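Data availability (excerpt). The following record was deposited with the supplementary files.
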Amino acid sequence: MEELTPWQRENLKYLQDKGDQPRWSQSEKEDEIGEIQTEPSAVEEADGHIEEAEGEVEEKELAYEEPRSFADRLPNLKQYRNRLLIRRLALIIGILIVPLLIVLYFVSPFSRLTEVKVKGNQEVSQEEIIADSNLTLNEDLWPQFFSRNAREAAIEKAIPRIKQVTISLAGLNHFEIAVQEYTEVALLAKDDTYAAILENGVVLSETSDQPIEGLPILEDFTDETQIKSVLTAYQQLSQEIQDGISQIKSSPRESNDELLTLFMNDGNQVIVNISNMASQMQYYPQIASDLTEASIVDMEVGIFTYPISSTKDEDAQTEESTDADS
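Predicted structure:
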């Protein structure tokens, strides 16, 4: 509202005393009302702000959640305490049950050895292996199991044919003895009998009257160390050459105590040293293919051949001269 002039103030005071309204005041009010009416957007804008404020208040009221009381939380607290109590009881019961189960197991038949099985044996009987293991049925299982290393060693020592032994738990109260035997690689001729020689060079004490087909026969060997050396050299030969050897005879001389005579299945004879048997015998197939009759292949010093018939003639002449001298 504009500031009144001195005249207007005086006129207004006069008219108020009389109770009238000055005309200039009504015109100003009408102008003000017109200005207000000519600006409806301000009112609408204000109404919009009011509605937005009311919406925010409603959203805050909806988002607001009253705090839960202790009575509302009491059931959850009881459930938590019950779960905690159950866990503690389960732990206590478990601690008490485990020792009880252990005691029951050791007094039950399940803790005793009820069966022993043997697998992998071919030449050695199951009964012999079990007897040498010193395992006892219906006795406590675990002491026997924990001493299995000593029992395995006892079997290997008692039975020369056994190469390796493994004792294992094969069931709730069963043992399994898995054995691996040495293979027989040759025969040792002894007074018209034959004893098997294992791959480790051990000569078995049991003998048989008939040789095992496919195995070479060692003759005139008395030293076990020399037998092992011969077998080591023999096993280095090719399978073809091994199959061609029927007999290996020790034929030492004064100047050479490791000389061998190999009797071949094709009728030839090979004279060779134990130390160079593996290296020189590889040439035998080629040499034998060039021979026209049964011959002696001398590999003691170098390699040369001569017919066996010539040696027989020399032996016959030697015998005749001996008889004549006598």
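Summary of structural features: The chain has twelve helices and twelve strands.
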